[in-house]
Amino acid sequence: MAETSSLVAIVMGSKSDWDTMRQCDEMLTKFAVPHECRVLSAHRTPVETAEYVGQAEGRGIEVIIAAAGGAAHLAGVCAAHTVLPVLGVPMESASLKGMDSLLSTVQMPAGIPVGTLAIGGAGARNAALLAVAILANSRPELKEKLKAFRREQSEKVLRETLP
Ligand code: RP5
Fold first, then answer.
1. Is 14 a pocket residue for ligand 1 (Cβ < 6 Å)?
2. Which atom of ligand 1 is nearest to the CA of 44?
3. Is the CB of 98 within 6 Å of ligand 1?
4. Predicted confidence (pLDDT) at residue 4 exceeds the cutoff of 70
5. Which residue lies with its CA nearest to atom 11 of ligand 1?
6. Model confidence over 12-62: pLDDT tens digits?
7. Which of 14, 26, 42, 65 is the most buried (most CB within 10 A)?
8. Residue 104, φ and ψ in degrees, nearest 5
């Protein structure tokens, strides 16, 4: 989607995170929320990460979703450079199954919050849904879409049959 009108920025530490984070991208697309996706690393591109996040609010971004794995400090670094809400998604890592990413993302010292979601795909999808909920506070049409999504989800569960 066009960068100029983006309301949500999804950043991830590596292209290797995209297989998971495409689920976040797809969920925002489902709700027709204008957004953009970037690879930016807290340690490999620290200056560019700070610049991008520092300029986000001025460009109209309202929520930042940051995904990283391992020593996952991307979400915390993003939060340090903006007062926009930052949602962190811990990536599942090969060695520690994402526990390293989870703890690195969730254990922010007081003063700079990161709203941390679940490890992996569930976190990616829920980050998008939480971003939608934040945006929906001032957009009634988006709130209706979110309620409809919840209704459809409930109906799907209630239709389940077992062998
Ligand atoms: C983190 O290191 C990334 O977010 C990724 O989850 C992890 C591994 O990155 P690659 O070595 O695959 O680029 O910075």
1. yes
2. 14
3. no
4. no
5. 14
6. 999 999 999 999 999 999 999 999 999 999 999 999 999 999 999 999 999
7. 65
8. -65, -35
